[in-house]
């Protein structure tokens, strides 16, 4: 049956000489794979420029419940970006975040709150001018709310370490190596203070930013089915410093 849904483009692989299989996170159906036919022809049936990381599209699809591969009938931009495709600090984050989402969003069912968070966060990435270097950190942190691994902020001021395994703060250094050190824990706590629209208030230098990103990704790997290396990570670090 034909359905209309908004979708967030994540990734694609080539399929035959003229088609691709595109991965989307959709408003109505969650994570879906779609056959996009004719896009690799000399006169493609779809604009190739639509299929870029985190592009927000209006999709008309043929949906068959229980099938691993669906088909797209039509795709159009629902929010044209003004900055992400043209500014390397934003485009590198879009590529990185789409790769993260591809790894951790597996459910093939609607999650309206999660989709709304992603949609508005991506729109913010395009629109915001200040604090962009820290945007991916705030995105990863607030995404944990929807993945079931959101940590609880400690009520006492003596919590100097964050244990990645237990997802708890502690005043004593854990007996294993999977934890944030004092400085990174302090910077991690700052993420609780701001919503994703206030990233400009997060003050981090390049070294602190890199350390916090490393530990956020370690936290994801500890609690989610998050395997393999992130191919876009090296480029992101080079761009943001």
UniProtKB/TrEMBL annotation:
Domain of life: Bacteria
Gene Ontology CC: bacterial nucleoid
Family: Belongs to the RecO family.
Any GO BP annotation: double-strand break repair
Keywords: DNA damage, DNA recombination, DNA repair
Entry annotated with the keyword DNA damage: yes
Record flagged with keyword Phosphoprotein: no
Summary of the function given for this chain in its UniProt record: Involved in DNA repair and RecF pathway recombination.
A Pfam family reported for this protein in Swiss-Prot or TrEMBL: RecO_C
SUPFAM superfamilies: ArfGap/RecO-like zinc finger, Nucleic acid-binding proteins
Biological source species: Sunxiuqinia elliptica
Alphabetical list of InterPro entries matching this protein: ARFGAP/RecO (IPR037278), DNA_rep/recomb_RecO_N (IPR022572), NA-bd_OB-fold (IPR012340), RecO (IPR003717), RecO_C (IPR042242)
Source lineage: Bacteria, Pseudomonadati, Bacteroidota, Bacteroidia, Marinilabiliales
All copies of domain DNA replication/recombination mediator RecO N-terminal, residue ranges: 1-80
NCBIfam families reported in the protein's UniProt record: reco (TIGR00613)
Protein name (Swiss-Prot/TrEMBL): DNA repair protein RecO
Gene: recO
